[in-house]
Each structure stands twice: as C-alpha cells, then as structure tokens.
Amino acid sequence: MSSIKFLGTAGARFVMISQLRYSGGMWFSINGIQFLVDPGPGTLIRAVKSKPKLNPQNLEGIFLSHRHLDHSCEINLMIEAMTDGGFKKKGVVFAPYDCLYEDPVILQYCRGFLEKIETIKEKNFYNIKGLTFEIPIRHKHSVETYGFKINSNGKIIGYISDTSFFPQLIDAYKNSEILIINTVLYEKKENVQHLCLQEAEEIIKSIKPKKAILTHFGMTMLKNKIWEKKDIISDRTKTDVIIANDGMNFEF
Length: 252
Ligand SMILES: [Zn+2]
Hints:
Helices cover 25% and strands 27% of the residues. The longest helix has 11 residues, at 197-207. It is an alpha/beta fold. It has ten helices and 15 strands. The site of zinc ion has 4 residues, from loops.
C-alpha cells in the first residue's frame, strides 16, 4: 500500500501566515519508501501529531520544489529530525540550485548530516532508494521551481508545484495517473505566478489522470469554499477530483 499524507494544504503567504490551513507539505510513502515534499511551517508538529504518528527518522529524503517559505521553512528542522538529530548520517535532499547556492535555505551545518544533496534540473531523472522520478520542466514562478513525476510500480504520480500556466506544462506532466496540482487562486489574477482553478481544470482535461488532487489553497479558494465544489469540478473535467484537506491520507 502506498499513500500520500497531506500535512498541510495552505498555499501562498496569507493562508500560511494566518494558518487558516496548515502548511506542512506532503508525506509520501511508496512501496515502504518514505519521503517528504515541501516542508513548510508546522511540518514537524503535523507529522508527530498525526494519527498514526509519522516518524521523521523513517524518511529517506526530502524534495524541495522551491525556496518560498510555505515550501521550505522547516527544511533544516526536518533534515535534523530525519537524521536523528544529526547523529545518523542518512538521506537525500533534492533542491533547485538557488536553494543551495544563491539564496540558500539549507544551512551549511545541516548539509553535513545528509548522505547526499542533489541539485535538481529539468529533464533529469533521480533516484530515492530505488524509486525513480523525473523533473519534467522548469516552472514559471518567481524563483527556480520544479515539480516531479514519480514512478510507483509503473503508475506515475505527478506533482505540479507553484507555477503560472503555460501550455508546455500539459506535455510535461502527461501520463500522470494521479496528478497533484497546487491551485492557489479561485480566479485568474494578472502578475501572480500561480495556477487558478480554471487553469487546473484545463490541465486535468488534457492530461486525463485517473485522479486529480487539488491542494495548496490561497485565500480566494477558501472564501469560495472550494471543499464544496468537488462534484462540480469532477463533472466539468470528467475526472475524479479530490479537494485536499489538512491531514488527508490518500491511499493508492
Ligand atoms: Zn511559491
């Protein structure tokens, strides 16, 4: 059994700083391999307070899509937790170049706790304990940003992190059977580099995953009660669309 636990579903700064939704990112468990994606504020507390509890020492790695705080705030803390306080050298962190070398979000002393740091780049493949994933394309966001497609027994799980819409996204994430989309905006807003609901629906209609999961909600998504719109969105896209909530455990 594989699963994705949504430790937080907050997107962008206002929902994060108000904590209207938690902001702990996602905890993947695929064929027994556990790894964490985008550890925003509150990741550690949401993990250890989960039922059943998620133990950071079981993590094999952490994927950082980009350096914005709602994704990266607890990266150092989670590295320390994953490595048993820094005493057990293990694990891999996957992060864009700028997170490591330009405006670093990972402290030098924490880097030494890790077995490996991988600088992610588009069109490259990576490996975490035998699980392979691809970075299909660089996103259009104000800082260097990537999502991934991970292979779980031949099933592709795609994660579209923060980005503006651009047509190449569709080709990049095609063949995803499960597609997670960070959908911050209810309606399109000029000069805000995030997907809106209509763009997320366009992506779903083109890629046709078996299941699409919307998460990372901004204020307008909450004001418009996005959690009540599952059926309408599923009808419009002819896809089973799931509206993530804090603590949701998605099994596949
Ligand atoms: Zn961002």
